Amino acid sequence: MEKRVTFGKWTIGILFAVPQLLLIFTFFYWPAGQAVYWSLTLQQPWGGGNIWVGLDNFRSILSNADYWNSITASLVFAGISTGLAMFIALVLAALTDRQLAGSRLYRVVLIWPYGIAAPALAMAFRFILAPEAGFMAVVNQVWPGFWDPGLDGADAMASIIVAFSWKYVGYNFIFFLAAFQAIPRSLIEAAAMDGSGVIRRFWDIQFPLITPTIFFLLVINITESFQDSFGIVDIMTAGGPANATNLMVYKIYSDGFKGLDYSGAAAQSIILMLLIIVLTIFQFRFIERRVHYR
Amino acid sequence: MVERTPFLNFFTHLILFIGFVFCIAPFVVVVIAASHNLKDVNDVPMSLLPGSDFWVNIKTAWTTADLGPKLLNSFIMATGVAAGKVIVSALTAFSIVYFRYPGRMLIFWLIFITLMLPLEVRIVPTYAVVANVLEPYQAILDLTGISWLIEKVSGVQVQLSLGLLNSYSGLILPLVATATGTFLYRQFFLTVPDELTEAARMDGAGALRFFIDILLPLSRNNMAALGTIMFLWAWNQYLWPLLITTDQSHAMAVTELKQLIPNVGGIPEWHIAMAGTLIVMLPPLIVVVLMQRWFVRGLIATEK
């Protein structure tokens, strides 16, 4: 879509865009280019500039078992938490959309978790899921040793998945509910006239009509699971135990800023960027085909 | 509700109620745990009746993590990011929509691409840029030979350097440098009728006058929505402030939470940790509750 009526002096027009262009050049394009440069060079430990090492940084990362472990952990985390958060939100939104008594209350409250900072909710869940106090302690009393995120990698992974999903159920709920409410009531009523029940109407009318939203949320949830997980991991598990929750962004942070391995961290950043881009393209290419746009 | 479905209605209520409980349970647990004393909070199972030490714990958490100045910092930073986004995005969208100039589509795409790669994945080089924000320009001068030229001519060696670590601008500017708001405005500007522009031009208004007197007042709703969502987003930032603020006086409330994680060994002080968590999660929660309409609108509009 283009405007028919515009202003003549385009020099003024460009001036309006200058602040943003300066910002994205300084804080986006330059750093992104810098990351590519660093990933191909090695900083000498006692100064003296960077030496060109080609793809050596990538080779050493990709031959490192810790890194593959980190990729696996990130993908497991992304897959399970996205699935959980989207499924629960879809069910809740579909039911809220039936507009029975009290649905206004749910509409207000179910959104709250998304407003909370990831580290703050991570702290709350760290307490709730702590093995010695809080609520999982009760389970541990019945079955001693059943739950210990400090020692058992699977438990730790489950903890961060629960915390992340809790936040994103609220987020997905907003979008699903908006999508459901955009479906014309007359469609639902016509189907009811034809004798289809609630479940039937859901699968044959509502679900196909909200597939664009499902697709959109899938992309966003997976991307966010790579970024927004940092605060949760840092507060709840710090990447442990034994690297079981050392997700990719956390590993970049700890290698780059704690290990001071800028070149390695830059190479990891590049791989993460590529991974996000590939996942997004993959989703557009293969899943969007099945999406019904109106 | 189209037909009578008593059985399904019962299930609807049941599942929604369970969802409701799971949704608010963490809030309730935090509040209750924050009201216990050290012994009660570590009881298994913890009593769900509130204890009497609520204000004591809040005070302890407040002083331990020094939350007063930290909350102020968070507030300044979140307001700065929200204001920056609201203003800068409006300017850019105006430029893209209302002018025709060479390279306009290039600018559009340059901005669009920034949506793909969030700050978290390019954190290392961005940190280096903020350590000396003029470094890109120094590099450009060096590469183009301008700094060599200046040195030859005037004998002055060009050393541009401006560190933004531990400063509000270092915190705020990189967070403003993404495209989220630009597209919100762009979509809205495209729906503004051309007749308005024509009428304004007929009355002799220039681009700037039209922008300030007509377009901005019309976009008030969008500004509120964008402002709300960006305020929350900035308040909840964690990784970026953690890196940029090595100096305690610039730390954020959210990053200070880490100070409250109970030590391993000894009896964990969960009551203090939960009191601190409550203080930190309260401001965004209040914003969400009070500004719900704008919040939902902003979320849906900025992402689409």
Oligomer: heterodimer
Range of strand content of chain A: under 5%
- Shape annotation of chain B: flat
Strand content of chain B: under 5%
Spatial order of strands in the largest sheet of chain A: 1-2
Shape of chain A: globular
Subunit structure (chain A): The complex is composed of two ATP-binding proteins (UgpC), two transmembrane proteins (UgpA and UgpE) and a solute-binding protein (UgpB).
Family (chain A): Belongs to the binding-protein-dependent transport system permease family.
Transmembrane segments (chain A): 12-32, 71-96, 108-129, 156-180, 201-220, 265-287
Main location (chain A): membrane
Written description of the protein model:
The complex is a heterodimer of chains A (294) and B (304). Chain A is globular and about 75 Å long. Chain A has helices spanning 10-39, 56-62, 65-96, 103-109, 112-115, 118-128, 136-142, 153-181, 185-193, 198-227, 229-236, 248-258, 262-287; strands at 41-43, 50-52. Chain A contains 13 helices and two strands. Chain A has 294 residues and is mainly alpha-helical. Chain A has a single domain, classed as Orthogonal Bundle (MetI-like fold), CATH 1.10.3720. By secondary structure, chain B is mainly alpha-helical. Helix content of chain B is 71%, strand content 0%. Chain B has 17 helices and no strands. Chain B has helices at 6-34, 38-41, 54-64, 67-98, 104-113, 123-131, 135-144, 146-154, 168-176, 180-191, 194-202, 207-218, 220-235, 239-244, 253-256, 270-290, 292-303. Chain B is flat, with a radius of gyration of 25 Å. Chains A and B meet through helix 1, helix 3, helix 4, helix 5 and helix 6 of A and helix 1, helix 4, helix 5, helix 6 and helix 9 of B. Chain A: It is found in: Cell inner membrane; Cell membrane.
